[in-house]
Model the fold of this input.
Amino acid sequence: MLYKTLCAFKPLRKSDMKITKGALTVRLAKREDLKKIYRLRFDCFYKEYLGLPDSVTGVDINRYDIFANYLVLTDHEKIVGTYRLLTGHKQKDFSFSETFECLNFDSLKTPIVELSRACIAPSHRNGPLPVLLLWRGLAAYLRELGAKTLVGRVSMAGDDPTIVRALYKHLRETGGHRSDILAVPRKPLEEGPHAEFVPEMVPSILRSYLRLGAKVAGDSCFDPILRCFDIFTLLDMEELSHKF
Done:
């Protein structure tokens, strides 16, 4: 019911924003894009990552999609990437609140936008251009809204806590962690040893975010369904403005 309702009636923010490089274009989604967006997310998150067969609908959708807008990356009009964009005033308005409680949420600069359910088709993951175009589109969208803070979660594949502990230790020592933002995981990891850090531990998407000025906050949380660690990230828009 939610899927049919969204595809038929969901209002989406209208914008003339359009960024093109060769055959690739980034723009805001239209209502007719929704089925393709939900299908791409299902293919990336469940078929590819978990190896699940098609469900009855073969779509990834949840209650936060009711309030979302979407960036889409197209190649000759075929959708090959998408970011879900949520705005709100209370912590419960954002999907990260299912995993983290930000104890000093009210101290974040507003308006706040959450980037979530980000995915790119396997055919377009080689090379920096697809992510660069999506982030140029994201920067334009945030400027239109007058957003001050971008928040989100990054996934780190695997289930070895010693690796994620090593990552957090490295980020705290190198300025990639904000201790003033109290993002507390709802299911925190137990204290324990950490592995020896190597640069390959940093997920590629997190590496890109850090280059743009993003920071990690709090500690990680393990997702038993997708078998990955969730990492709370945030970016001050002033940092992003310097990059774009």
Notes: The two ends are 40 Å apart (CA to CA). Residues 107 and 181 are 8 Å apart (CA to CA). DSSP finds six helices and twelve strands in the chain. The first helix runs from residue 2 to 9.
